[in-house]
Design goal:
Distance between the termini: 26 Å
Strand content: 25-35%
Number of strands: 7
Order of helices and strands: HHHEEEEEHEEHHH
Shape: elongated
Structural class: alpha+beta
Largest sheet: 7 strands, mixed
Length: 275
């Protein structure tokens, strides 16, 4: 059959009441259709293969998710021969020498007493966030016993429901995780701000997926990734999934920033060469 012959199509006209258009008769139509089919399958095949940046990003997400599902790290008991007792006005007394978690309610008022085998000259109390200690109390003197409080949980529960408290003195140290059981993570400032930051950061990261991966786009991705990581880490701490005293929590803001830097353009369709 000659390339421009329409004899083959004439035999097929019995299957349709519509005659073939003039532009569909001949070799040029076959060549054009074949080119379009090739371009289509190239696009499908290209979308099915992740680029190296996308594969690295996916692996990075899996690592962060793995850390997120780990239980909160167990705090060290009181060491150095000291003993400590905590009292909650509604929830009762707990031996902080061995306890790692102290469950309280928003109506509680907390006090603490510590006893050391020898005189202690300094004492420090701090609250941990992303593994970074924020000073709460500093005291100097010479004594073998110490007192802390009273602290009204209602003064702190609007801001956070999970507190990682650590203390040390001349020869002793210890820590405990305080969880306010009757407060929801999404009713505290930390939980709400964490959720908002995580959502805004995630939206920003998704917006960069189809952008041209220029230097400016990657800087924007880094910033929104950092915001998303801080928000997610803060929310997970409020849910008592992550331990606020664990410095590995910094992997969330740091990891979010790296991920935001890597992902711009990974879903952007590459222009196809003209057939």
């Amino acid at each position: 059959m000659a390339p421009d012959s329409t004899a083959h199509f004439e035999r097929l006209r019995t299957f349709s009441s519509r005659p073939l258009k003039a532009e569909h008769r001949g070799g040029r139509w076959f060549e054009s259709t074949a080119a379009h089919h090739q371009a289509f399958w190239r696009n499908v095949w290209g979308m099915s293969k992740l680029r190296p940046g996308a594969r690295i990003s996916c692996a990075f997400v899996l690592v962060l998710v793995g850390l997120a599902v780990l239980p909160a790290a167990v705090h060290a008991n009181v060491s150095g021969g000291c003993t400590a007792t905590g009292t909650a006005s509604k929830s009762g007394t707990v031996d902080l020498t061995t306890a790692t978690v102290w469950h309280v309610t928003a109506a509680d008022v907390l006090t603490g007493v510590a006893t050391a085998p020898g005189s202690q000259r300094t004492a420090h109390l701090k609250v941990d966030l992303f593994g970074i200690g924020l000073p709460l109390l500093d005291s100097t003197g010479t004594s073998s016993t110490g007192h802390a409080g009273p602290y009204r949980i209602a003064d702190y529960s609007p801001y956070t429901r999970v507190l990682a408290v650590a203390g040390n003195s001349t020869s002793c140290d210890g820590s405990v995780l305080i969880i306010v059981d009757d407060v929801s993570p999404l009713t505290t400032w930390a939980g709400v701000l964490g959720l908002i930051a995580a959502l805004l950061g995630l939206i920003g990261m998704l917006a960069t997926l189809t952008q041209v991966p220029t230097g400016n786009t990657r800087i924007v991705g880094l910033v929104v990734g950092l915001v998303a990581g801080v928000g997610l880490g803060l929310l997970l701490q409020e849910m008592a999934i992550l331990d606020p005293a664990n410095a590995l929590d910094l992997l969330f803001p740091g990891g979010g920033a790296v991920l935001g830097f890597l992902i711009p353009g990974i879903l952007r369709r590459q222009p196809t060469a003209a057939a």
